[in-house]
Design a protein that fits this description.
By secondary structure, the chain is α/β, with parallel strands linked by helices. It is 38% helix and 17% strand. Helix 1 packs across helix 2 and helix 3 crosses helix 4. The two termini are 19 Å apart. The protein binds ligand PBG. The site of ligand PBG has 9 residues, from loops.
Protein backbone atom coordinates (compact mmCIF):
# COMPACT_ATOMS: atom_id res chain seq x y z
CA UNK A 1 0.00 0.00 0.00
CA UNK A 2 3.03 2.29 0.24
CA UNK A 3 2.70 5.28 -2.04
CA UNK A 4 6.36 5.45 -2.98
CA UNK A 5 8.64 2.69 -4.24
CA UNK A 6 12.39 2.40 -4.23
CA UNK A 7 13.88 -0.28 -6.45
CA UNK A 8 17.47 -1.15 -7.39
CA UNK A 9 16.65 -0.47 -11.04
CA UNK A 10 15.87 3.15 -10.14
CA UNK A 11 19.42 3.68 -8.87
CA UNK A 12 22.39 4.83 -10.93
CA UNK A 13 25.86 4.22 -9.50
CA UNK A 14 28.51 6.89 -10.07
CA UNK A 15 31.89 5.20 -10.64
CA UNK A 16 35.37 6.66 -10.92
CA UNK A 17 37.91 5.19 -13.29
CA UNK A 18 41.54 6.26 -13.25
CA UNK A 19 44.02 5.94 -16.09
CA UNK A 20 47.18 3.99 -15.34
CA UNK A 21 45.92 2.44 -12.12
CA UNK A 22 46.63 -1.24 -11.37
CA UNK A 23 44.52 -1.65 -8.25
CA UNK A 24 41.53 0.27 -6.89
CA UNK A 25 42.40 3.18 -4.61
CA UNK A 26 39.99 4.00 -1.75
CA UNK A 27 38.58 7.53 -1.64
CA UNK A 28 39.04 8.75 1.95
CA UNK A 29 36.11 11.15 2.00
CA UNK A 30 33.74 8.63 0.36
CA UNK A 31 34.11 5.50 2.50
CA UNK A 32 33.40 2.40 0.44
CA UNK A 33 34.02 4.18 -2.90
CA UNK A 34 37.11 3.78 -5.06
CA UNK A 35 39.07 5.19 -7.91
CA UNK A 36 38.90 2.13 -10.13
CA UNK A 37 41.28 0.45 -12.49
CA UNK A 38 39.69 -0.96 -15.64
CA UNK A 39 39.64 -4.44 -14.09
CA UNK A 40 38.15 -3.35 -10.77
CA UNK A 41 35.57 -1.25 -12.64
CA UNK A 42 34.32 -4.39 -14.35
CA UNK A 43 34.21 -6.23 -11.01
CA UNK A 44 32.25 -3.39 -9.43
CA UNK A 45 29.71 -3.32 -12.24
CA UNK A 46 29.27 -7.06 -11.87
CA UNK A 47 28.58 -6.61 -8.15
CA UNK A 48 26.02 -3.91 -8.91
CA UNK A 49 24.37 -6.11 -11.51
CA UNK A 50 24.08 -8.91 -8.96
CA UNK A 51 21.92 -6.70 -6.71
CA UNK A 52 19.78 -5.34 -9.54
CA UNK A 53 21.49 -2.03 -10.36
CA UNK A 54 21.55 -1.75 -14.15
CA UNK A 55 22.92 1.75 -14.69
CA UNK A 56 26.29 3.31 -14.00
CA UNK A 57 27.70 6.74 -14.76
CA UNK A 58 31.44 7.05 -15.34
CA UNK A 59 33.79 9.81 -14.26
CA UNK A 60 37.35 9.72 -15.56
CA UNK A 61 40.69 10.61 -14.03
CA UNK A 62 43.16 11.19 -16.87
CA UNK A 63 46.92 10.95 -16.44
CA UNK A 64 47.43 14.13 -18.41
CA UNK A 65 45.44 17.34 -18.19
CA UNK A 66 45.74 20.42 -20.38
CA UNK A 67 44.03 23.78 -20.79
CA UNK A 68 41.45 22.47 -23.26
CA UNK A 69 40.86 19.13 -21.58
CA UNK A 70 41.71 17.21 -24.74
CA UNK A 71 41.65 13.78 -23.06
CA UNK A 72 37.92 14.31 -22.62
CA UNK A 73 37.24 13.53 -26.29
CA UNK A 74 40.37 11.60 -27.31
CA UNK A 75 39.47 8.16 -28.65
CA UNK A 76 41.92 6.67 -26.14
CA UNK A 77 40.83 8.94 -23.28
CA UNK A 78 40.08 7.04 -20.08
CA UNK A 79 36.29 7.40 -20.22
CA UNK A 80 36.17 6.15 -23.79
CA UNK A 81 38.45 3.21 -22.98
CA UNK A 82 36.30 2.32 -19.96
CA UNK A 83 33.06 2.60 -21.94
CA UNK A 84 34.40 0.24 -24.60
CA UNK A 85 35.43 -2.19 -21.90
CA UNK A 86 31.96 -2.15 -20.34
CA UNK A 87 30.35 -2.64 -23.73
CA UNK A 88 32.60 -5.65 -24.41
CA UNK A 89 31.87 -7.17 -21.01
CA UNK A 90 28.18 -6.41 -20.58
CA UNK A 91 26.71 -5.43 -23.96
CA UNK A 92 23.21 -4.04 -23.50
CA UNK A 93 22.75 -5.59 -20.05
CA UNK A 94 24.22 -2.51 -18.41
CA UNK A 95 23.19 1.04 -19.22
CA UNK A 96 26.53 2.82 -19.50
CA UNK A 97 26.33 6.54 -18.91
CA UNK A 98 29.15 9.06 -18.98
CA UNK A 99 29.53 12.40 -17.30
CA UNK A 100 30.16 14.90 -20.07
CA UNK A 101 32.17 17.68 -18.50
CA UNK A 102 35.63 19.10 -18.96
CA UNK A 103 36.63 19.76 -15.36
CA UNK A 104 38.29 16.40 -14.74
CA UNK A 105 40.41 16.97 -17.84
CA UNK A 106 41.42 20.63 -17.67
CA UNK A 107 44.57 21.77 -15.90
CA UNK A 108 42.65 24.69 -14.34
CA UNK A 109 39.72 22.56 -13.11
CA UNK A 110 36.97 24.64 -14.70
CA UNK A 111 34.13 23.15 -16.74
CA UNK A 112 34.94 25.29 -19.77
CA UNK A 113 37.64 27.05 -21.73
CA UNK A 114 39.17 30.06 -20.06
CA UNK A 115 39.60 33.54 -21.47
CA UNK A 116 42.83 35.44 -20.78
CA UNK A 117 41.23 37.06 -17.76
CA UNK A 118 40.47 33.64 -16.23
CA UNK A 119 36.71 33.71 -16.81
CA UNK A 120 34.93 30.80 -18.52
CA UNK A 121 34.07 31.33 -22.20
CA UNK A 122 30.66 29.66 -22.51
CA UNK A 123 30.23 29.76 -26.28
CA UNK A 124 33.77 28.70 -27.14
CA UNK A 125 33.29 25.63 -24.92
CA UNK A 126 30.14 24.27 -26.59
CA UNK A 127 31.85 22.59 -29.53
CA UNK A 128 34.11 20.68 -27.11
CA UNK A 129 31.08 19.34 -25.27
CA UNK A 130 29.70 18.20 -28.60
CA UNK A 131 32.96 16.45 -29.47
CA UNK A 132 33.05 14.82 -26.06
CA UNK A 133 29.49 13.52 -26.43
CA UNK A 134 30.28 12.06 -29.86
CA UNK A 135 33.45 10.38 -28.54
CA UNK A 136 31.49 8.88 -25.64
CA UNK A 137 28.69 7.68 -27.91
CA UNK A 138 31.22 6.16 -30.31
CA UNK A 139 32.76 4.30 -27.37
CA UNK A 140 29.40 2.82 -26.41
CA UNK A 141 27.73 5.26 -24.02
CA UNK A 142 23.96 4.83 -24.12
CA UNK A 143 23.53 8.06 -22.19
CA UNK A 144 25.65 11.20 -22.08
CA UNK A 145 25.37 13.55 -19.13
CA UNK A 146 26.29 17.19 -19.75
CA UNK A 147 27.17 18.55 -16.31
CA UNK A 148 29.10 21.70 -17.13
CA UNK A 149 26.13 24.09 -16.96
CA UNK A 150 27.20 25.89 -20.14
CA UNK A 151 24.21 27.58 -21.77
CA UNK A 152 23.36 25.84 -25.03
CA UNK A 153 25.34 22.67 -24.28
CA UNK A 154 22.39 20.31 -24.78
CA UNK A 155 21.47 21.73 -28.19
CA UNK A 156 25.01 21.55 -29.53
CA UNK A 157 25.46 18.01 -28.24
CA UNK A 158 22.16 16.87 -29.76
CA UNK A 159 22.97 18.25 -33.18
CA UNK A 160 26.55 16.96 -33.20
CA UNK A 161 25.37 13.51 -32.02
CA UNK A 162 22.70 13.43 -34.74
CA UNK A 163 25.16 14.55 -37.44
CA UNK A 164 27.53 11.76 -36.39
CA UNK A 165 24.72 9.20 -36.65
CA UNK A 166 24.11 8.75 -32.90
CA UNK A 167 20.41 9.50 -33.12
CA UNK A 168 19.50 7.19 -30.26
CA UNK A 169 22.02 8.39 -27.72
CA UNK A 170 20.12 9.73 -24.73
CA UNK A 171 20.98 13.07 -23.17
CA UNK A 172 20.57 13.24 -19.41
CA UNK A 173 21.10 16.91 -18.72
CA UNK A 174 22.31 18.20 -15.40
CA UNK A 175 19.61 20.84 -15.66
CA UNK A 176 19.27 22.32 -12.20
CA UNK A 177 22.79 22.08 -10.87
CA UNK A 178 23.38 24.35 -7.93
CA UNK A 179 26.71 25.85 -6.88
CA UNK A 180 26.78 23.69 -3.77
CA UNK A 181 29.24 23.14 -0.95
CA UNK A 182 28.22 19.47 -1.02
CA UNK A 183 30.56 18.54 -3.90
CA UNK A 184 33.66 18.59 -1.65
CA UNK A 185 34.36 14.84 -1.46
CA UNK A 186 33.76 14.46 -5.21
CA UNK A 187 36.58 16.87 -5.93
CA UNK A 188 38.88 14.64 -3.89
CA UNK A 189 37.53 11.62 -5.75
CA UNK A 190 38.39 13.06 -9.16
CA UNK A 191 41.43 14.99 -7.95
CA UNK A 192 40.15 18.33 -9.20
CA UNK A 193 40.92 21.67 -7.63
CA UNK A 194 39.86 24.91 -9.24
CA UNK A 195 42.70 27.23 -10.16
CA UNK A 196 43.31 30.07 -7.73
CA UNK A 197 40.75 28.72 -5.26
CA UNK A 198 37.97 29.74 -7.67
CA UNK A 199 34.39 28.49 -7.71
CA UNK A 200 31.67 27.68 -10.25
CA UNK A 201 29.21 30.40 -9.29
CA UNK A 202 29.44 31.97 -12.74
CA UNK A 203 27.84 28.91 -14.35
CA UNK A 204 26.15 26.84 -11.64
CA UNK A 205 22.90 28.05 -10.06
CA UNK A 206 22.43 30.21 -6.99
CA UNK A 207 20.76 28.18 -4.25
CA UNK A 208 18.58 31.15 -3.32
CA UNK A 209 16.65 30.66 -6.54
CA UNK A 210 13.92 28.09 -7.03
CA UNK A 211 12.05 29.14 -10.17
CA UNK A 212 15.22 29.58 -12.19
CA UNK A 213 15.27 25.79 -12.42
CA UNK A 214 12.02 25.84 -14.36
CA UNK A 215 13.61 28.13 -16.93
CA UNK A 216 16.69 25.89 -17.13
CA UNK A 217 14.44 22.86 -17.60
CA UNK A 218 12.40 24.46 -20.39
CA UNK A 219 15.58 25.43 -22.21
CA UNK A 220 17.19 21.99 -21.86
CA UNK A 221 14.06 20.16 -23.01
CA UNK A 222 13.65 22.50 -25.99
CA UNK A 223 17.28 21.78 -26.90
CA UNK A 224 16.68 18.03 -26.80
CA UNK A 225 17.24 16.75 -23.25
CA UNK A 226 15.66 13.31 -22.75
CA UNK A 227 16.10 13.27 -18.97
CA UNK A 228 16.63 16.27 -16.71
CA UNK A 229 18.47 16.22 -13.41
CA UNK A 230 18.41 18.12 -10.14
CA UNK A 231 21.59 18.23 -8.09
CA UNK A 232 22.19 17.99 -5.14
CA UNK A 233 19.06 16.21 -3.94
CA UNK A 234 18.11 16.59 -0.27
CA UNK A 235 18.44 20.37 -0.10
CA UNK A 236 16.55 20.72 -3.40
CA UNK A 237 13.51 18.49 -2.97
CA UNK A 238 11.30 21.51 -3.67
CA UNK A 239 13.00 21.83 -7.05
CA UNK A 240 12.59 18.09 -7.74
CA UNK A 241 8.89 18.40 -6.95
CA UNK A 242 8.48 21.52 -9.10
CA UNK A 243 10.12 19.92 -12.10
CA UNK A 244 8.42 16.55 -11.71
CA UNK A 245 5.08 18.36 -11.65
CA UNK A 246 5.86 20.47 -14.69
CA UNK A 247 7.85 18.59 -17.31
CA UNK A 248 6.97 15.53 -19.36
CA UNK A 249 10.41 13.91 -19.42
CA UNK A 250 11.87 11.72 -16.66
CA UNK A 251 13.48 13.55 -13.74
CA UNK A 252 16.68 12.35 -12.11
CA UNK A 253 18.17 13.56 -8.83
CA UNK A 254 21.80 13.30 -7.79
CA UNK A 255 22.38 12.45 -4.13
CA UNK A 256 25.89 13.89 -4.18
CA UNK A 257 29.19 13.12 -2.52
CA UNK A 258 28.68 15.45 0.46
CA UNK A 259 25.28 13.92 1.16
CA UNK A 260 26.81 10.44 1.17
CA UNK A 261 29.80 11.54 3.25
CA UNK A 262 27.63 13.15 5.93
CA UNK A 263 25.68 9.94 6.47
CA UNK A 264 28.84 7.82 6.47
CA UNK A 265 30.61 10.10 8.92
CA UNK A 266 27.75 10.27 11.40
CA UNK A 267 27.16 6.53 11.13
CA UNK A 268 30.85 5.83 11.77
CA UNK A 269 30.51 7.75 15.04
CA UNK A 270 27.52 5.64 15.97
CA UNK A 271 25.33 8.75 16.00
CA UNK A 272 22.85 7.61 13.37
CA UNK A 273 21.83 4.34 11.76
CA UNK A 274 23.50 4.87 8.38
CA UNK A 275 21.54 2.45 6.17
CA UNK A 276 18.24 3.55 7.73
CA UNK A 277 19.00 7.21 7.06
CA UNK A 278 20.14 6.45 3.52
CA UNK A 279 16.95 4.51 2.82
CA UNK A 280 14.84 7.33 4.25
CA UNK A 281 16.61 9.95 2.14
CA UNK A 282 16.47 7.99 -1.10
CA UNK A 283 12.79 7.24 -0.55
CA UNK A 284 12.15 10.95 0.12
CA UNK A 285 13.84 11.83 -3.17
CA UNK A 286 11.53 9.41 -4.95
CA UNK A 287 8.54 10.77 -3.02
CA UNK A 288 9.42 14.29 -4.18
CA UNK A 289 9.06 13.01 -7.74
CA UNK A 290 12.43 11.79 -8.99
CA UNK A 291 12.15 8.83 -11.36
CA UNK A 292 15.76 7.83 -10.82
CA UNK A 293 18.54 8.62 -8.37
CA UNK A 294 22.28 8.84 -8.87
CA UNK A 295 23.77 7.70 -5.59
CA UNK A 296 26.96 6.31 -4.06
CA UNK A 297 24.60 4.18 -1.94
CA UNK A 298 23.45 2.28 -5.03
CA UNK A 299 25.14 -0.99 -4.14
CA UNK A 300 24.56 -0.86 -0.39
CA UNK A 301 20.90 0.07 -0.59
CA UNK A 302 20.13 -2.22 -3.52
CA UNK A 303 21.58 -5.06 -1.49
CA UNK A 304 19.42 -4.04 1.45
CA UNK A 305 16.32 -3.86 -0.76
CA UNK A 306 16.92 -7.24 -2.33
CA UNK A 307 17.19 -9.03 1.04
C1 LIG B 1 31.30 18.08 -12.76
C2 LIG B 1 30.60 17.32 -11.69
C3 LIG B 1 30.67 17.55 -10.32
C4 LIG B 1 29.89 16.56 -9.72
C5 LIG B 1 29.37 15.77 -10.73
N1 LIG B 1 29.80 16.27 -11.95
C6 LIG B 1 31.48 18.51 -9.55
C7 LIG B 1 31.27 19.95 -9.68
O1 LIG B 1 30.33 20.46 -10.30
O2 LIG B 1 32.12 20.66 -9.14
C8 LIG B 1 29.67 16.40 -8.25
C9 LIG B 1 29.07 15.11 -7.81
C10 LIG B 1 29.16 14.85 -6.35
O3 LIG B 1 29.51 15.71 -5.53
O4 LIG B 1 28.87 13.71 -5.99
N2 LIG B 1 32.05 17.22 -13.57
Amino acid sequence: MAETTLRPSQLIAPLFVAEGLDAPRPITSLPGQFQHSLASLVDEVRKLQAVGVESVILFGLPEHKDERGSQAWAADGIIQVALRRLRDEFGDDIIAMADTCLDEFTSHGHCGLLRDDGSVDNDATLELYGQMAVAQAAAGAAVVGPSGMMDGQVGVMRSMLDDAGYLDTIIMAYTAKYASALYGPFREAVDVSIAGGGDRKAYQQDYSNRRESLREARLDIAEGADIIMVKPAMTYLDVVADLAGTVDVPVAAYHVSGEYAMIKAAAAQGWIDGPAVALEQLTAIRRAGADMILTYFAHEIAQELSQ
